[in-house]
Specification:
The protein is an alpha/beta fold. The chain has 13 helices and 18 strands.
Protein backbone atom coordinates (compact mmCIF):
# COMPACT_ATOMS: atom_id res chain seq x y z
CA UNK A 1 0.00 0.00 0.00
CA UNK A 2 1.39 3.43 -0.95
CA UNK A 3 0.99 6.32 1.44
CA UNK A 4 0.77 9.78 -0.06
CA UNK A 5 2.89 12.41 1.62
CA UNK A 6 0.87 15.01 3.54
CA UNK A 7 0.38 18.29 1.68
CA UNK A 8 2.77 20.98 2.94
CA UNK A 9 0.88 23.60 4.94
CA UNK A 10 1.26 27.29 4.20
CA UNK A 11 -0.12 30.33 6.03
CA UNK A 12 -0.60 33.59 4.14
CA UNK A 13 -1.20 36.78 6.11
CA UNK A 14 -3.27 39.24 4.06
CA UNK A 15 -6.21 38.83 1.68
CA UNK A 16 -5.64 41.82 -0.58
CA UNK A 17 -4.14 41.09 -4.00
CA UNK A 18 -0.76 39.40 -3.43
CA UNK A 19 -2.18 37.02 -0.79
CA UNK A 20 -5.06 35.49 -2.78
CA UNK A 21 -2.89 35.37 -5.93
CA UNK A 22 -0.24 33.36 -4.08
CA UNK A 23 -3.01 31.24 -2.56
CA UNK A 24 -4.22 30.29 -6.03
CA UNK A 25 -0.80 29.18 -7.26
CA UNK A 26 0.29 27.38 -4.06
CA UNK A 27 -2.99 25.46 -4.05
CA UNK A 28 -2.37 24.49 -7.68
CA UNK A 29 1.09 23.23 -6.68
CA UNK A 30 -0.26 20.97 -3.93
CA UNK A 31 -0.08 23.11 -0.79
CA UNK A 32 -2.77 23.19 1.88
CA UNK A 33 -3.26 26.94 2.28
CA UNK A 34 -4.70 29.00 5.14
CA UNK A 35 -5.23 32.75 4.69
CA UNK A 36 -5.60 35.02 7.72
CA UNK A 37 -7.06 38.51 7.26
CA UNK A 38 -7.72 41.09 9.99
CA UNK A 39 -10.72 42.58 8.15
CA UNK A 40 -14.14 40.91 8.55
CA UNK A 41 -14.35 40.07 4.85
CA UNK A 42 -12.74 40.77 1.48
CA UNK A 43 -12.65 44.52 1.00
CA UNK A 44 -14.97 45.72 -1.76
CA UNK A 45 -14.92 48.98 -3.70
CA UNK A 46 -11.71 50.93 -3.58
CA UNK A 47 -9.80 53.05 -6.02
CA UNK A 48 -8.88 51.88 -9.55
CA UNK A 49 -5.78 49.72 -10.01
CA UNK A 50 -3.83 48.86 -13.16
CA UNK A 51 -2.96 45.38 -14.45
CA UNK A 52 -0.25 45.63 -17.10
CA UNK A 53 2.34 43.68 -19.07
CA UNK A 54 3.32 40.29 -17.69
CA UNK A 55 0.63 40.58 -14.99
CA UNK A 56 -1.99 40.25 -17.75
CA UNK A 57 -0.43 36.91 -18.69
CA UNK A 58 -0.67 35.83 -15.03
CA UNK A 59 -4.39 36.61 -14.70
CA UNK A 60 -4.97 34.93 -18.07
CA UNK A 61 -3.29 31.75 -16.78
CA UNK A 62 -5.62 31.97 -13.76
CA UNK A 63 -8.65 32.10 -16.05
CA UNK A 64 -9.63 35.54 -14.76
CA UNK A 65 -8.96 37.68 -17.81
CA UNK A 66 -12.50 37.58 -19.32
CA UNK A 67 -14.03 38.51 -15.98
CA UNK A 68 -11.59 41.39 -15.48
CA UNK A 69 -12.09 42.61 -19.05
CA UNK A 70 -15.81 42.89 -18.23
CA UNK A 71 -14.91 44.93 -15.13
CA UNK A 72 -12.51 47.21 -17.03
CA UNK A 73 -12.90 50.90 -16.28
CA UNK A 74 -12.89 52.74 -19.55
CA UNK A 75 -11.44 56.09 -18.48
CA UNK A 76 -11.74 58.27 -21.54
CA UNK A 77 -10.45 61.65 -20.48
CA UNK A 78 -7.88 63.20 -18.17
CA UNK A 79 -8.26 66.94 -17.68
CA UNK A 80 -5.65 69.11 -15.97
CA UNK A 81 -6.65 72.39 -14.34
CA UNK A 82 -4.69 75.39 -13.10
CA UNK A 83 -5.02 77.00 -9.68
CA UNK A 84 -8.11 78.99 -10.66
CA UNK A 85 -9.83 75.95 -12.17
CA UNK A 86 -9.10 76.91 -15.79
CA UNK A 87 -8.33 74.06 -18.18
CA UNK A 88 -4.66 73.47 -19.01
CA UNK A 89 -5.39 70.59 -21.38
CA UNK A 90 -7.52 67.47 -21.77
CA UNK A 91 -6.23 64.22 -23.25
CA UNK A 92 -6.60 60.42 -23.18
CA UNK A 93 -5.16 58.91 -19.97
CA UNK A 94 -2.83 56.58 -21.89
CA UNK A 95 -1.08 59.59 -23.41
CA UNK A 96 0.18 60.30 -19.89
CA UNK A 97 0.51 56.80 -18.40
CA UNK A 98 2.00 55.07 -21.43
CA UNK A 99 -0.60 52.32 -21.16
CA UNK A 100 -1.60 50.15 -24.09
CA UNK A 101 -5.15 50.88 -25.22
CA UNK A 102 -7.14 47.70 -25.66
CA UNK A 103 -4.68 45.55 -23.68
CA UNK A 104 -3.91 47.07 -20.28
CA UNK A 105 -6.62 46.76 -17.65
CA UNK A 106 -7.86 49.25 -15.10
CA UNK A 107 -10.35 47.84 -12.61
CA UNK A 108 -11.73 48.74 -9.22
CA UNK A 109 -9.48 47.21 -6.60
CA UNK A 110 -12.48 45.44 -5.08
CA UNK A 111 -13.36 43.80 -8.40
CA UNK A 112 -9.87 42.30 -8.60
CA UNK A 113 -9.80 41.11 -4.98
CA UNK A 114 -13.29 39.60 -5.40
CA UNK A 115 -12.21 37.73 -8.56
CA UNK A 116 -9.11 36.36 -6.81
CA UNK A 117 -11.07 35.38 -3.71
CA UNK A 118 -13.80 33.64 -5.70
CA UNK A 119 -11.15 31.63 -7.56
CA UNK A 120 -9.81 30.08 -4.32
CA UNK A 121 -12.42 30.31 -1.56
CA UNK A 122 -13.77 26.78 -2.02
CA UNK A 123 -10.33 25.15 -1.94
CA UNK A 124 -8.54 26.85 0.96
CA UNK A 125 -9.19 28.02 4.52
CA UNK A 126 -9.87 31.71 5.24
CA UNK A 127 -9.64 33.11 8.77
CA UNK A 128 -11.25 36.56 8.83
CA UNK A 129 -11.22 38.94 11.80
CA UNK A 130 -7.87 37.55 12.93
CA UNK A 131 -4.15 38.18 12.53
CA UNK A 132 -0.74 36.77 13.43
CA UNK A 133 0.60 37.77 16.85
CA UNK A 134 3.85 35.78 17.00
CA UNK A 135 6.09 33.68 14.74
CA UNK A 136 8.58 31.16 16.13
CA UNK A 137 10.98 29.31 13.82
CA UNK A 138 12.98 27.47 16.48
CA UNK A 139 11.31 24.11 15.72
CA UNK A 140 10.83 22.17 12.49
CA UNK A 141 8.26 24.56 11.00
CA UNK A 142 6.86 27.94 11.92
CA UNK A 143 4.85 28.06 15.15
CA UNK A 144 2.18 30.74 14.81
CA UNK A 145 0.08 32.31 17.55
CA UNK A 146 -3.02 34.10 16.32
CA UNK A 147 -4.48 37.24 17.87
CA UNK A 148 -7.60 35.38 19.01
CA UNK A 149 -5.48 32.90 20.94
CA UNK A 150 -5.17 29.75 18.85
CA UNK A 151 -1.76 28.31 17.88
CA UNK A 152 -0.78 26.23 14.85
CA UNK A 153 2.36 25.09 13.07
CA UNK A 154 2.92 25.64 9.33
CA UNK A 155 5.66 24.53 6.98
CA UNK A 156 5.87 28.02 5.42
CA UNK A 157 4.47 31.47 6.25
CA UNK A 158 4.03 34.39 3.86
CA UNK A 159 3.54 38.07 4.65
CA UNK A 160 1.24 39.65 2.06
CA UNK A 161 0.02 42.23 4.55
CA UNK A 162 0.81 45.43 2.70
CA UNK A 163 3.07 48.42 2.98
CA UNK A 164 2.81 48.54 6.78
CA UNK A 165 3.34 44.79 7.15
CA UNK A 166 3.34 43.35 10.68
CA UNK A 167 4.97 40.19 9.34
CA UNK A 168 7.91 42.28 8.10
CA UNK A 169 8.17 44.06 11.44
CA UNK A 170 8.25 40.72 13.33
CA UNK A 171 10.94 39.30 11.03
CA UNK A 172 13.11 42.25 10.10
CA UNK A 173 12.37 45.09 12.51
CA UNK A 174 10.74 48.54 12.27
CA UNK A 175 9.36 49.85 9.00
CA UNK A 176 11.62 52.93 9.15
CA UNK A 177 14.59 50.76 8.17
CA UNK A 178 13.01 49.94 4.81
CA UNK A 179 10.67 52.87 4.11
CA UNK A 180 11.81 55.40 1.53
CA UNK A 181 9.70 58.54 1.88
CA UNK A 182 9.06 60.26 -1.45
CA UNK A 183 8.22 63.72 -0.16
CA UNK A 184 4.42 63.64 -0.45
CA UNK A 185 1.35 62.66 1.59
CA UNK A 186 -2.13 61.88 0.36
CA UNK A 187 -5.71 61.38 1.46
CA UNK A 188 -8.29 59.46 -0.58
CA UNK A 189 -12.03 59.02 0.06
CA UNK A 190 -15.37 58.86 -1.76
CA UNK A 191 -17.76 61.77 -2.14
CA UNK A 192 -20.85 62.72 -4.11
CA UNK A 193 -20.32 63.29 -7.83
CA UNK A 194 -21.44 66.90 -7.67
CA UNK A 195 -19.74 67.85 -10.97
CA UNK A 196 -21.49 65.17 -13.03
CA UNK A 197 -18.20 63.56 -14.09
CA UNK A 198 -18.30 60.37 -16.18
CA UNK A 199 -15.47 57.96 -17.12
CA UNK A 200 -12.85 60.64 -16.48
CA UNK A 201 -10.35 62.16 -14.10
CA UNK A 202 -10.00 65.86 -13.36
CA UNK A 203 -6.78 67.05 -11.69
CA UNK A 204 -6.16 70.48 -10.16
CA UNK A 205 -2.59 71.55 -9.43
CA UNK A 206 -0.74 74.36 -7.75
CA UNK A 207 2.95 73.97 -6.77
CA UNK A 208 3.18 71.20 -4.18
CA UNK A 209 -0.59 70.60 -4.05
CA UNK A 210 -2.90 68.45 -6.17
CA UNK A 211 -6.54 67.43 -6.03
CA UNK A 212 -8.03 64.81 -8.34
CA UNK A 213 -11.55 63.48 -8.81
CA UNK A 214 -11.84 60.01 -10.39
CA UNK A 215 -15.20 59.10 -11.92
CA UNK A 216 -14.86 55.41 -12.81
CA UNK A 217 -18.28 55.25 -14.47
CA UNK A 218 -21.56 57.15 -14.35
CA UNK A 219 -21.81 56.65 -10.61
CA UNK A 220 -23.22 59.00 -8.01
CA UNK A 221 -19.84 58.87 -6.25
CA UNK A 222 -16.29 59.81 -7.22
CA UNK A 223 -12.95 59.04 -5.63
CA UNK A 224 -11.43 62.22 -4.26
CA UNK A 225 -7.67 62.34 -3.94
CA UNK A 226 -5.65 65.10 -2.26
CA UNK A 227 -1.86 65.08 -2.44
CA UNK A 228 0.65 67.53 -0.98
CA UNK A 229 4.40 67.90 -0.73
CA UNK A 230 5.99 67.78 2.71
CA UNK A 231 9.72 67.53 3.47
CA UNK A 232 9.28 65.10 6.39
CA UNK A 233 6.52 62.57 7.08
CA UNK A 234 3.86 63.99 9.47
CA UNK A 235 4.31 61.28 12.08
CA UNK A 236 1.84 62.91 14.50
CA UNK A 237 -0.97 62.46 11.94
CA UNK A 238 -0.50 58.72 11.35
CA UNK A 239 -3.16 56.78 13.21
CA UNK A 240 -5.00 59.98 14.20
CA UNK A 241 -7.97 60.62 11.90
CA UNK A 242 -8.71 64.06 13.34
CA UNK A 243 -5.10 65.21 12.96
CA UNK A 244 -5.12 63.98 9.35
CA UNK A 245 -8.23 65.98 8.46
CA UNK A 246 -6.84 69.09 10.17
CA UNK A 247 -3.51 68.77 8.37
CA UNK A 248 -5.15 68.42 4.94
CA UNK A 249 -7.51 71.32 5.63
CA UNK A 250 -4.56 73.49 6.70
CA UNK A 251 -2.48 72.62 3.62
CA UNK A 252 -5.35 73.32 1.19
CA UNK A 253 -6.72 76.41 2.94
CA UNK A 254 -7.41 79.20 0.44
CA UNK A 255 -7.31 76.87 -2.57
CA UNK A 256 -9.54 77.68 -5.55
CA UNK A 257 -11.69 75.64 -7.95
CA UNK A 258 -13.93 73.09 -6.13
CA UNK A 259 -11.40 72.44 -3.37
CA UNK A 260 -13.41 74.04 -0.51
CA UNK A 261 -16.35 71.71 -1.27
CA UNK A 262 -14.01 68.71 -1.44
CA UNK A 263 -12.56 69.65 1.97
CA UNK A 264 -16.10 69.89 3.36
CA UNK A 265 -16.81 66.38 2.03
CA UNK A 266 -13.56 65.16 3.62
CA UNK A 267 -14.73 66.36 7.04
CA UNK A 268 -17.84 64.17 6.79
CA UNK A 269 -16.33 61.14 4.99
CA UNK A 270 -16.16 57.82 6.84
CA UNK A 271 -13.73 56.05 4.47
CA UNK A 272 -10.71 58.36 4.51
CA UNK A 273 -7.36 56.67 3.87
CA UNK A 274 -4.32 58.81 4.67
CA UNK A 275 -0.68 57.88 4.21
CA UNK A 276 2.76 59.00 3.13
CA UNK A 277 3.82 58.37 -0.46
CA UNK A 278 6.69 55.95 -0.12
CA UNK A 279 8.39 52.74 -1.12
CA UNK A 280 9.59 49.64 0.70
CA UNK A 281 13.16 48.70 -0.24
CA UNK A 282 14.67 45.63 1.40
CA UNK A 283 17.97 43.79 0.89
CA UNK A 284 16.14 40.43 1.12
CA UNK A 285 12.53 39.28 1.25
CA UNK A 286 12.76 36.09 3.31
CA UNK A 287 14.07 34.76 6.59
CA UNK A 288 14.09 31.03 7.25
CA UNK A 289 10.67 29.63 6.37
CA UNK A 290 8.95 33.02 6.12
CA UNK A 291 8.84 35.21 3.00
CA UNK A 292 7.30 38.55 2.07
CA UNK A 293 5.59 39.46 -1.20
CA UNK A 294 3.71 42.34 -2.78
CA UNK A 295 3.82 45.71 -1.04
CA UNK A 296 5.11 44.10 2.17
CA UNK A 297 8.34 43.24 0.33
CA UNK A 298 8.67 45.98 -2.27
CA UNK A 299 5.91 48.59 -2.41
CA UNK A 300 6.79 50.78 -5.42
CA UNK A 301 4.26 53.55 -4.52
CA UNK A 302 1.18 54.41 -6.54
CA UNK A 303 3.28 56.89 -8.54
CA UNK A 304 4.56 53.96 -10.62
CA UNK A 305 1.09 52.52 -11.28
CA UNK A 306 2.69 49.06 -10.97
CA UNK A 307 2.09 47.86 -7.41
CA UNK A 308 -0.77 45.54 -8.38
CA UNK A 309 1.10 44.10 -11.36
CA UNK A 310 4.23 43.46 -9.27
CA UNK A 311 2.12 41.67 -6.64
CA UNK A 312 0.53 39.37 -9.25
CA UNK A 313 3.85 38.63 -10.97
CA UNK A 314 5.67 38.05 -7.68
CA UNK A 315 3.02 35.61 -6.43
CA UNK A 316 3.29 33.60 -9.65
CA UNK A 317 7.10 33.43 -9.50
CA UNK A 318 7.19 32.63 -5.78
CA UNK A 319 4.80 29.69 -6.03
CA UNK A 320 6.51 28.43 -9.18
CA UNK A 321 9.92 28.53 -7.48
CA UNK A 322 8.59 26.54 -4.50
CA UNK A 323 6.91 23.95 -6.73
CA UNK A 324 10.28 22.48 -7.76
CA UNK A 325 12.59 23.43 -4.86
CA UNK A 326 12.86 23.42 -1.10
CA UNK A 327 12.02 26.66 0.67
CA UNK A 328 15.58 28.03 0.94
CA UNK A 329 16.37 27.50 -2.74
CA UNK A 330 12.83 28.48 -3.73
CA UNK A 331 12.95 31.79 -1.89
CA UNK A 332 16.36 32.55 -3.43
CA UNK A 333 15.06 31.76 -6.93
CA UNK A 334 11.99 33.95 -6.34
CA UNK A 335 14.17 36.92 -5.40
CA UNK A 336 16.58 36.29 -8.25
CA UNK A 337 13.75 36.12 -10.78
CA UNK A 338 11.76 39.12 -9.53
CA UNK A 339 14.13 41.68 -8.02
CA UNK A 340 15.39 43.22 -11.27
CA UNK A 341 11.84 44.07 -12.38
CA UNK A 342 11.04 45.45 -8.92
CA UNK A 343 14.15 47.64 -8.83
CA UNK A 344 13.63 49.01 -12.33
CA UNK A 345 10.01 49.82 -11.46
CA UNK A 346 10.90 51.53 -8.19
CA UNK A 347 13.64 53.58 -9.85
CA UNK A 348 11.13 55.05 -12.30
CA UNK A 349 9.11 56.69 -9.54
CA UNK A 350 10.36 60.19 -10.37
CA UNK A 351 8.56 60.14 -13.71
CA UNK A 352 5.14 59.76 -12.10
CA UNK A 353 5.82 62.31 -9.39
CA UNK A 354 7.06 64.93 -11.84
CA UNK A 355 3.99 64.57 -14.04
CA UNK A 356 1.30 64.48 -11.38
CA UNK A 357 2.72 66.54 -8.52
CA UNK A 358 5.19 69.28 -9.51
CA UNK A 359 6.43 71.05 -6.39
CA UNK A 360 7.60 74.40 -7.85
CA UNK A 361 5.97 76.95 -10.13
CA UNK A 362 8.70 76.38 -12.72
CA UNK A 363 8.26 72.59 -12.68
CA UNK A 364 4.47 72.99 -12.92
CA UNK A 365 4.75 75.26 -15.97
CA UNK A 366 7.18 72.83 -17.66
CA UNK A 367 4.76 69.98 -16.90
CA UNK A 368 1.87 71.92 -18.40
CA UNK A 369 3.87 72.67 -21.55
CA UNK A 370 4.66 68.95 -21.96
CA UNK A 371 0.98 68.05 -21.53
CA UNK A 372 -0.13 70.67 -24.06
CA UNK A 373 2.38 69.27 -26.54
CA UNK A 374 1.03 65.73 -25.96
CA UNK A 375 -2.50 66.90 -26.68
CA UNK A 376 -1.47 68.99 -29.70
CA UNK A 377 -2.47 72.28 -28.09
Amino acid sequence: MTRTAPRPEALISGAGIAGPALTYWLNRHGYAVTVVEKAPTIRSGGYPVDVRGTALDVVEKMGLLPQLRDAHIDLRRLTFLDGDGGEVTSLHPHAVTGGATGRDLEVRRGDLTEALYTAVRDDVEFLFNDSVDTLDQSGHGVDVTFHHGSSRTFDLVFGADGMHSRTRKMLFGPEERFHRYLGHCFAVFTMRNTLGLSHETVMWNTPGRAVALYAVGDDDEVHAFLNFARPEPPYAAFGNARAQRELVAEVFAGAGWEVPGILAALRDADDVFFDAVGQIRMPRWSDGRVALLGDAAHAPSFLTGQGTSLALIGAYHLAGALAVRGHAEGFAAYEHGTRDLVTRTQDRVGEGGGTLFPTTAEALEQRNQRLRALSGR
